[in-house]
């Protein structure tokens, strides 16, 4: 992983290239007071007041140069306003002129993220270091960057190198680092206690058996919360097999687990006063003679029966058993993350996680944190009128209604059946993948809603 801690340093007056910030409103006035050499450089580089545009400004000596960049609002810096500079400037040390970078420290670091596991030339780009006069914020910003990078690394790693066993190893590493308790239930032992997890994962090859990975941490006297993440390490679609174009990105179907693991790491690093229960059902939805079939009726940990109408709607099945187990601990709050439905992406695209909650104050707290962190969420309805779409002629419910209407909503309603009525619960249907690069956010695996969820938890529990 990128050494993010080396990219932010306390400003003690050390030599650094200045970064001048302008926006559309201040561009002309700033330019009007610049020396002739700067105005010539701006014109030569055709700098215009458009977001992320920048120009190098020559100094009086060869190495004494600075840079000007255009941001949306110089008085309210976004996390990403310096990210393109971090991606493109020469290696060296930089200082924002006249103000603190604040939230922009995040994009400065994540803009230098690289997934280089399979590149021969890995690690050869030099760092761009940003100075800050707020050294107390450095550790927290570094942790956010590291959590984001962890999600990216886990999602970017191909399934051939990252199956249920490797996901278990990642949780184990965190448990060892933070002194947490790890419990893993795997293989045939799932068949009675977690029958849906077992059914979905039993077709996988030896060594890639399904498992429920649990981590517990914190003082039992503190409020209990559960974080659940969908861990489908590869999704063929099962016997309802996906087409090649739909299958090629299915290494990312454990993106919910990656978010849950990263959030758990942030909670423990921050030492939030909670009793944390992390649950990751980890499977590979494979095709073999052991694969579960369309039309099978599945038992569940909760006791409900589910008619399996689509083997490619497997994520909600494994989450159902995990949510049931989470509820047995009587938490006051459950958050789950899942790359659950294409319907959410059709409705909202990749940038907006469809967010469902059974509690209005919880939903409001998440949306408020999302706005403050520039980590957007979009609330969707748990519309009771669509609950009847889950009816089955032969079982308590189906996993995937026919017709495709309101697919993200009916998936969330399915999950709701496994959450105790007395527990506050939010479900984030995330994409976990960035189809097109943006400053600070390269193409590939990415975290959505992670910072918003963590900020909400900090505000709620006084971290």
Automatic annotation (TrEMBL):
<feature type="domain" description="Cytosol aminopeptidase">
    <location>
        <begin position="310"/>
        <end position="317"/>
    </location>
</feature>
<dbReference type="InterPro" id="IPR000819">
    <property type="entry name" value="Peptidase_M17_C"/>
</dbReference>
<keyword id="KW-0645">Protease</keyword>
<dbReference type="Pfam" id="PF21337">
    <property type="entry name" value="Peptidase_M17_N_1"/>
</dbReference>
<dbReference type="GO" id="GO:0030145">
    <property type="term" value="F:manganese ion binding"/>
</dbReference>
<dbReference type="InterPro" id="IPR043472">
    <property type="entry name" value="Macro_dom-like"/>
</dbReference>
<keyword id="KW-0378">Hydrolase</keyword>
<dbReference type="InterPro" id="IPR011356">
    <property type="entry name" value="Leucine_aapep/pepB"/>
</dbReference>
<dbReference type="GO" id="GO:0005737">
    <property type="term" value="C:cytoplasm"/>
</dbReference>
<dbReference type="GO" id="GO:0006508">
    <property type="term" value="P:proteolysis"/>
</dbReference>
<comment type="similarity">
    <text>Belongs to the peptidase M17 family.</text>
</comment>
<protein>
    <submittedName>
        <fullName>Leucyl aminopeptidase</fullName>
    </submittedName>
</protein>
<keyword id="KW-0464">Manganese</keyword>
<keyword id="KW-0031">Aminopeptidase</keyword>
<dbReference type="InterPro" id="IPR048816">
    <property type="entry name" value="Peptidase_M17_N_1"/>
</dbReference>
<dbReference type="GO" id="GO:0070006">
    <property type="term" value="F:metalloaminopeptidase activity"/>
</dbReference>
<dbReference type="Pfam" id="PF00883">
    <property type="entry name" value="Peptidase_M17"/>
</dbReference>
């Amino acid at each position: 992983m990128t050494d993010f801690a080396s990219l932010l340093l306390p400003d003690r007056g050390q030599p650094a290239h200045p970064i001048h910030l302008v926006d559309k409103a201040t561009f002309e006035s700033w330019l009007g007071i610049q020396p002739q050499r700067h105005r010539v450089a701006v014109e030569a580089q055709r700098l215009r007041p458009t977001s992320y545009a920048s120009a190098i400004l020559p100094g009086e000596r060869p190495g004494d140069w600075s840079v000007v960049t255009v941001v949306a609002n110089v008085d309210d810096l976004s996390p990403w306003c310096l990210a393109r500079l971090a991606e493109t400037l020469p290696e060296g040390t930089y200082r924002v002129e006249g103000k603190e970078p604040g939230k922009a420290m995040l994009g400065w670091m994540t803009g230098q993220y690289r997934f280089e596991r399979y590149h021969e030339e890995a690690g050869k780009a030099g760092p761009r270091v940003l100075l800050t006069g707020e050294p107390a914020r450095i550790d927290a910003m570094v942790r956010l960057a590291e959590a984001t990078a962890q999600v990216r690394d886990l999602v970017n790693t191909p399934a051939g190198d990252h199956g249920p066993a490797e996901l278990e190893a990642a949780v184990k590493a965190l448990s060892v680092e933070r002194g947490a308790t790890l419990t893993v239930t795997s293989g045939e032992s799932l068949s009675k206690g977690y029958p849906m997890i077992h059914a979905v994962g039993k077709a996988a090859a030896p060594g890639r058996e399904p498992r429920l990975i649990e981590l517990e941490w914190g003082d039992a006297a503190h409020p209990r919360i559960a974080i659940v993440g969908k861990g489908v390490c590869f999704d063929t679609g099962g016997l309802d097999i996906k087409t090649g174009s739909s299958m090629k990105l299915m290494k990312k179907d454990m993106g919910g687990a990656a978010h849950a693991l990263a959030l758990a790491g942030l909670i423990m690093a921050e030492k939030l006063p909670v009793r944390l229960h992390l649950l990751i059902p980890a499977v590979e939805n494979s095709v073999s003679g052991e694969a579960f079939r369309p039309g099978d009726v599945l038992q569940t940990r909760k006791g409900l029966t589910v008619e399996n109408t689509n083997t490619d709607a497997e994520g909600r099945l494994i989450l159902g058993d995990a949510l049931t187990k989470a509820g047995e601990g009587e938490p006051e709050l459950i958050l789950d993350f899942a790359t659950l439905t294409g319907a959410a992406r059709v409705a909202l695209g990749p940038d907006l996680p469809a967010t469902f909650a059974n509690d209005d104050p919880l939903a409001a707290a998440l949306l408020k944190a999302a706005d403050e962190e520039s980590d957007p969420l979009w609330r969707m309805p748990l519309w009771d009128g669509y609950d009847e779409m889950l009816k089955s002629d032969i079982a308590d419910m189906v996993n995937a209604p026919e017709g495709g209407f309101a697919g993200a909503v009916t998936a969330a309603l399915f999950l709701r059946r496994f959450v105790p009525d007395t527990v506050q619960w939010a479900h984030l249907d995330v994409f976990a993948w960035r189809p097109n690069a943006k400053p600070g956010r390269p193409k590939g695996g990415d975290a959505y809603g992670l910072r918003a969820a963590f900020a909400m938890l900090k505000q709620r529990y006084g971290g």
